[in-house]
Design a protein that fits this description.
Layout lengths: L2 H25 L21 H20 L8 H31 L3 E2 L5 E2 L27 H36 L11
Antiparallel strand pairs: 1-2
């Protein structure tokens, strides 16, 4: 596959991934569709790893990848070089999303255990006794309803999206370097001047 076409394919794939990451992160602010007080929302949601990391920092290189995949002067080497730098930014955003999603999955949600006080009942547990592997402990959280399942699903989606975006951006870094050195292999159509 030509470096220009590869760049465009990666750019097209990044757009829906970034949109899903933004939506998933926004949904984490409304557990089970409820509007909560700011102090009742899990703390790691406030790092905006889906909105900023896997969202905005993935959309920026995606735009450049679409442009770098087209025709340009000098076989579009400058566009490919710029896509390398923006892909590094997208790679950092994907890794940022993976790290904070992992931390949130391991630490568990902020919830009311029945006494009206919101705490993190699953923090400081070893992985052997982690709530992810022991579904019977989920009944500890009384409010918001289904908060554990809500967090597991959305943080897992963010984890997967961040990992996929990081891999795609890494591929684009290599692709962009090749395209910068060799050009985008755009061929002129026969009979067109």
């Amino acid at each position: 596959m030509c470096t220009g076409k590869c760049s465009r394919c990666i750019g097209i794939i990044l757009f829906p991934l970034a949109l899903c990451a933004i939506v998933s992160n926004i949904l984490l602010y409304f557990p089970n569709g409820q509007v909560l007080q700011l102090s009742e929302i899990t703390d790691l949601v406030w790092f905006f790893h889906g909105i900023l990391g896997a969202g905005i920092l993935a959309i920026l290189p995606a735009f450049m990848m679409l442009g770098a995949g087209g025709a340009g002067c000098c076989a579009n080497r400058c566009g490919m070089l710029l896509s390398v730098f923006l892909s590094l930014l997208g790679l950092a955003g994907g890794v940022y999303c993976v790290v904070f999603s992992s931390m949130a999955l391991i630490g568990g949600p902020l919830c009311d255990t029945g006494d009206g006080e919101y705490i993190y009942p699953f923090r400081n547990n070893t992985l052997e006794y982690n709530y992810l592997f022991n579904q019977t402990t989920w009944s500890i959280c009384k409010e918001p309803e289904n908060i554990i399942l809500w967090n597991i699903v959305l943080f897992s989606i963010l984890l997967a999206i961040g990992a996929i975006e990081a891999v795609l951006c890494f591929i684009q870094v290599a692709n962009g370097l090749i395209g910068c050195m060799c050009g985008t292999c755009m061929r002129k159509k026969v009979g067109m001047q």
